[in-house]
Amino acid sequence: MGKRNRIYLLIYAQIVFDIPLLLRNNYHLMVLNVAALNIIVVIGLNLLMGYAGQISLGHAAFFGLGAYLSAVLTTTYGFPVWPALILAFVVTGAVAYAIGIPTLKLEGHYLVMATLGFNVIVYIVMIQLDAVTGGPSGFAGIPHLRMGGFVFNSERKIYYLFWAISILVLLLSLNLITSRVGRAMAALSHNEIAAKCAGVDTEKYKLNIFVISAILASLAGSLYAHYITFISPGTFSFFYSLQVVTMVLVGGMGSLWGSIFGTVLLTLLPELLHAVKDYNVLIQGVILTGVLVFFPEGLFPGILEAWRKRRVAAQQETAPTAKAP
Amino acid sequence: MSQEDALSLNGPILETRGLTLRFGGLEALNGLSISVESHRIVSMIGPNGAGKTTLLNAITGVNLPDDGDILFRGQSILGLKPFQITALGVNRTFQQTQLFSNMTVLGNVMVGMHPRTRSGFLGGTFHLPGERREEKQIRKRAEALLERFGLLPRAEWRASHISIAEQKRLEIARAMAGEPAILLLDEPAAGLNIRETEVMGDLILRLKGDGQTVILVEHNMHLVMGISDWVIVLHHGSKIGEGRPEDVQKDNRVVEAYLGT
Amino acid sequence: MSFTLQLFQFFVSGLTTGSTYALIAIGFSIIHNATGIVNFAQGEFVMLGGMFMVTFHSVLKVPLVGAFFLAVFCVAIIGVLLERGPIRHARSKEILVLVMITVGASIIIKGLSMIFWGKNPMTLPPFSGETPLLFMGAAVMPQSIWIFGITIFVVTALHYFFQRTVTGKAMRAVAASRRSAALTGIPVDRMIFLSFTLSGALGAVAGIILTPITTTSYDVGAMLALKGFSAAILGGYGSMPGAVVGGLLLGVLESLGAGLISSEYKDALAFLILLVVLFLRPSGILGRGRLRRV
To answer: What is the domain count for chain B?
Structure first.
């Protein structure tokens, strides 16, 4: 993954695992736990948006499929938790494969609408298939995650599990984007025709990344279900799809570290603005629109770029007779 | 006879037969039949709109012809996808360089090696030993290629930050990274000054010397006549003449086509 | 009630909602033709039409006709603000970014509406009373007649506008080729401005005539946008007759589906149709086939 990424990863992991030693408040830990799950979804989505160059407004559906499949398998049919989780993401992956084939052939904005349509269909099914899903009032009694006798039933325990998984996903994704496949995908997102003519099977890669991003969303959804132990369709509406897309855009498409920044920022923000909950939707819209209008490359890359320019300008000021770089 | 002649006896390395392609109401290629022998530099010339780039697009699978056939080493490649045709051994450059502008110079060439390498999602994600080995090889070979094209000092530069002449060479280097049997160059001298064009001409001759078959689309007559083994003249999507450079220059129909437009 | 009568009932109610889908679809087409983008905020224009109408007519007691024009005017202004604001100032002109900006804008509008009007659904009294009229044995709401009438009027007016007036023809020129239009001296910017104004007004009209039947609230925009988009795609994206055919067809299919198969999954039908059309025949019913691309 490159020396620099390795160093960042070590520092990042260190910080992540130190936080629970400093943070005692369960509520804060809960917010961070949700952030960890969001990071898993967002990394997958960033691979799709930043590398395969496709925007999906339907990832809440994959998140929800993971949640409901795992919940129903364990609660209604008594499956053990981890196999249920794996089966859930295998099924979700298959669904993603099936709709990916026709969807990825569509042009940009048609693809957006198709994924949105898919999200709404899944959402409606979640509500209407109430015999299985519990309908609008939700599905309760989902068992906790466990390993042997050890049950993950506290915020602190969940924190270590979720963040370990999230760091692992980050690590594997960093490996992927610095590999031959990652290069092929970067090429495909920059210039699809040139990539095709250079020998990249763009259709296969787009589909694979779509499926991977769906599997990651499903994984996060299942973990969510076994964490909160109660799920309802409202969580999986296209509003969540928009939220995760915004997180990718704020962090910068193609930048995994930026995604961490964007996700943590936008997961924390609604909590900080809890007092003005009614303004949540408005603020969400303002952030999304603002980032798209002023920082289409991403807020995180925009900040980095501004900081870099400042440094260059400062250097030039202190050495006015030096040659321009 | 020489080894080269023996190889050519096996038939042309590339052929089109009655190739027709229409855009809207316009016939960009009109029953075009050409044949290219291996280990030669074959140039396509003709006024703008003659169908030269369209022909390259058809050969590389970017546009599907409406009629006719394309044969590579005797096998039809009609209907194959671009990446499949590249894997078979046909690589190209573009009229306006289509580099991966945000990637490094080295990165661009490494992408070019894609069809000759194998590690996939599993190897990449888990950094398996086979993948690690292949990555080392990819890097070494890419650096060697950059050196051959005089681009090694620029290896870590962003592709969009190098000069036009260097960008043109980089695109060729990227195409060569795919180890093609045929190299299709679309106006490699466009935007270059006289000295840079000479360097480009030498480069193409060196490639031929290493055994490469080159199909060259060019407007720069000096370059074309200077390095080509064979020249094919297109006009309105059909072939109106072909032959050795010195013969084509004297052909009346060719002169008329150029003066008439 | 006999089966034929039931069918007729479904048909009529389908045409009613279908008319509004048609108006929404036309709104999509106008902006798409002028700018190439899908304006996701179209659904919010519809919602706002209803909301403004409620405020002007029910709350401020402005008479019906006056409130109608006021509401349409207000939404047209919002359309202008969208175009002059985020769209005009966007640093990147890529179509996908602009489409996502309209998504963002639709969220902003939704958020503001939630603050301003609250979360409760709002309704308007039907324009001429609630007594159903009997037509061939079936009960038809007078509001439906209004909807048909107004839709026919609007579509005819738009047809005249695009075919006979200079401005309308100029807009069609921009839709066909922006560069050529600019070269012949057509003020492209102004045409784009006009397209947003027109689409805003159209959305408002759709919202106003529909509200007495379906009520409105701050979050109906997204569904309406998607359904309108489905209708536009179904009929052939970018063409006005296509939008009308698509809208009416979608409305009828939805109504028949709800009545004959299942009313719970009614909303899903529109999106299923959307996916099917996009996957199988993206050019829609009236659209031309697309160029083969490798």
So the answer is: 1
A114 — contact with chain C (CB < 8 Å)? yes
Is the ipTM beyond the 0.90 threshold? no
User: Are A278 and C115 a contacting pair at CB < 8 A?
Assistant: yes
Measure the CA angle with vertex B84, ends B79 and B90; round to 5°: 95
Q: Which residues contact residue C236 at a Cβ distance below 8 angstroms, ignoring those fewer than 6 apart?
A: C242, C243, C245, C246, C283, C284, C285, C286, C287
Instruction: Say if C287 falls within a structural domain.
Output: no
Domain that holds residue B70: 3-89+180-259
State how many domains chain C has: 1
Rounded CA separation C116/B243 (Å): 79
CATH number of the domain to which B185 belongs:
3.40.50.300
CB contact under 8 A, A283 and C278: no
Range(s) of the domain holding residue C147:
3-231
As given in the structure block, the two tokens for residue A317 are: 């000021």
Q: What is the pTM of this model?
A: 0.89
B142 belongs to a structural domain: no
Say if B132 falls within a structural domain. no
From the CA of C294, how many Å to the nearest CA of chain B? 6
CA distance A134 to chain B (A): 38
**Is B167 part of any domain?**
no
Q: Which of C92, C114, C267 sits opposite A281 (nearest CB)?
A: C114
DSSP letter, residue B64: -
Pairwise CA distance, residues C44 & C193, whole Å: 18
Say if residues B226 and B244 touch (Cβ distance below 8 Å): no
Domain presence at residue C266: no
Please report whether residue C9 resides in a domain.
yes
Residues 54-93 of B with CB under 8 A from C: 61-64, 81-82
pLDDT at residue C292 tops 50:
no
- The total domain count for chain A is 1
Say if the Cβ atoms of B138 and A172 lie within 8 Å.
no
CA-to-CA separations, B83 to A195, B115, B141, in angstroms, rounded = 8, 8, 21
In a domain, residue A298? The reply is: no
Question: Which of the residues A168, A197, A215 would you substitute to probe the B interface, choosing the one with the greatest number of B C-beta atoms within 10 Å?
Answer: A197
User: Is C148 within a domain?
Assistant: yes
In a domain, A95, yes or no: yes
CA distance B189 to C48: 58
- Tell me the mean pLDDT in the region C250-260: 88
pLDDT digit string, tens, across residues C46-61? 999 999 999 998 888 8
Residue C48: C-alpha distances to residues A108, A294, B52, C158, C200 (Å): 28, 27, 55, 21, 9
Distance of residue A17 Cα from the nearest chain C Cα, in angstroms: 35
pLDDT of amino acid B1? 44
C-alpha to C-alpha distance for C241 and C247, rounded to whole angstroms: 10
Q: What is the pLDDT of residues B19-62, one digit of tens each?
A: 999 887 777 898 899 999 989 999 999 887 778 889 999 999 99
